[in-house]
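Quick one before lunch.
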Amino acid sequence: MNKLQKPDYSDFGELNQLIGSFDVHKGYAALVATAMQEISVMENKASHLWECGTYLELDEQGRLVKSTLCRERRCPLCQWRRSLRVYGQVQKMLQWLEPGGYKYLHLVLTIPNCRADDLKNQCDWLYTRSTAMFSDRLFGKRDQLGPIAHCKRSFKGIVRALEVTYNSDTDLYHPHLHCLIAVKSSYFTNPADYYSQEKLSVLWTGYAAPNFGMKHGDLFVLHVKRVKDSEKNNAVAEVAKYAVKPFHCDLDIDGYKKILPVLNRALSGRRMLQIYGVFADAARALKIDLNDDKEETEDSGALTRKFSFIHGKYREVAKHD
Ligand SMILES: [Zn+2]
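Model of the zinc ion complex:
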């Protein structure tokens, strides 16, 4: 057995920070695991979360060479790793698409907040609705809204991510979709292609408002923003962060006990991220699978540092091989 050493990160500023982030997310995992333990159908998952990331082996660039991640959907540590991975993958896809001269939009599609019992149905609705919208299948040819359904022509590629947030004051859930959309640069100057926020809101809402207790003619909240070239990273981060959000709101054990079964029921088996058009082309060319949970672990034979999670903190167990 390796003897415990006092951690000395002084010559590894960034790794020091990284271990600090592992500490934070492992802390959240412990909180979620504690709540899961008290939910009978989740006891199994709880033990996976307790075991998750108790051992880490990192190389000098901070890449994870070996670990014991559990890959459970609701594990905050794994979700954080996943969001970093998605961030890197989408970044690579954007680089691959660079010669195409695409511009990007950040689109957020929402519906009214809902109660726990309705969350699964509302998530289904968001998926079906957005897929129909992006493929111009919302309205018939003779429908008065038919002419504004031209997403296929206007949007060249889409990354769609589901995010669910929870408001403990109102006890309501807010499922919504973050989309990163690639458009040709002529999109902004060609009135036939361009979507104003209002036009897109009308298209997204269609005739559905009364189904959600709203008046006919009311519009669902929708945000669309052109991504400035200098802000491309922020948009990528926004799409990637879906993975982390619900577990980093300030909930106590009872709060988690309440929302975990709800999220589990609504989201299990669901693909959280989907890509279409030029993003799918990029992913194919680069052999990227956004839903692949494997952490890239290539043992380059370089020196590694090993950490174990002991008494609520990562501690270095042996500095070198
Ligand atoms: Zn995990």
